[in-house]
Amino acid sequence: MSNAVLSIQKLEAGYGSKAVVRDFSLDVAAGEFVSLLGPSGSGKSSVLRAIAGFLPAMGGRILLEGRDITGETPERRNVGIVFQNYALFPTMTAFENIAFALRVAKRPQAEVEKRVRDMATLSGIDEQLTRNPAEMSGGQQQRVAIARALVTGSRVLLFDEPLSNLDAKVRVTMRREIKRMQREVGFTAIFVTHDQEDALTMSDRIVVLNGGRAEQIGHGRTLYRQPATPFICQFIGASNELSPPVARRLLGAKGEGRSFVRLEDVLIAENGGGGARATVSHIEFLGSHSRVYMIVEGDTISAMLLGDDLPDVGSEVWVSIRPGAVHVFGGTCL
Ligand SMILES: Nc1ncnc2c1ncn2[C@@H]1O[C@H](COP(=O)(O)OP(=O)(O)O)[C@@H](O)[C@H]1O
Ligand SMILES: [Mg+2]
């Protein structure tokens, strides 16, 4: 793709002779926000390290703005990186942390001052510039790390789980802050996370990694509504896998294959009206909704219910599946 700012083509990368990233291809447009989402060990950080140049490619190519950087040293790639642990220099002030690369490049003091202050304003840390990392909150440290990644003029930013060490409230704020900065600066982002909510809320596209391969690439809504594999179905959102007896009972399914139903597509009725008889085994209260577990045909199936109008634990209910809401893999569609 000619307008891709970053083009990864059939990348193979790993440690020793073992490839942990395999046949990985991705074109990223300028200004796009792409998340790499996957469980621990699925190869997310390895893809990022290969883009940054810390992990050599064993095969394939990486192009940055049309330039082949596959064999280039990290310093010459001009990508910025933001890590989970911030990786700030502990004995330096926020100002000097942000200024570091400019000092190395021996930029004149007036230019350093201006660029660091501009980035501090963008990142919302004007007041923190004289502090050391230990005197800042996690969110503030992460802002310093982002300012430091942007100050050299890198327009491709790689984020490796930057929100994982932040508490839930700060995490939500930082998601919005990163998106705001992206809008203001227009940088391109490759954002590694194991948190589907990070990926769903921030991304133009999500790449789901499984065992070092891209299992599906698309907008969050596409991955959610049209999962390509059982893995995607279970990793994005929450699904019940119906055992064959339950699938037969609830769907009249006769064919082979694995059937999945999202929790919100499991319908519960107190009396009659089709479906199967189920016994409520327990209920988890989650604030805005509750998860109701039921036993059907000896198997557990769960539903997500809004509000407080819930069946009693131990009671019998009727359970059915919203029409058209089943994802079937490896068999004939219903
Ligand atoms: N330095 C390393 N040496 C050897 N194997 C590694 C190293 N770093 C990661 N791996 C292996 O590579 C695979 C992918 O790891 P990684 O890219 O860190 O996954 P993720 O970031 O998705 O958790 C895992 O099986 C992991 O054990
Ligand atoms: Mg990682």
From TrEMBL:
Domain called ABC transporter: residue spans: 6-236
Membrane topology note: Peripheral membrane protein
Any one GO molecular function term: ATP binding
SUPFAM superfamilies linked to this entry: MOP-like, P-loop containing nucleoside triphosphate hydrolases
Coiled-coil residue spans: none
Record keywords: ATP-binding, Nucleotide-binding, Plasmid, Transport
A Pfam family per the record: ABC_tran
Subcellular location: Cell inner membrane
Similarity comment: family membership: Belongs to the ABC transporter superfamily.
Protein name: ABC transporter ATP-binding protein
Organism in which the protein naturally occurs: Sinorhizobium kummerowiae
Species lineage: Bacteria, Pseudomonadati, Pseudomonadota, Alphaproteobacteria, Hyphomicrobiales
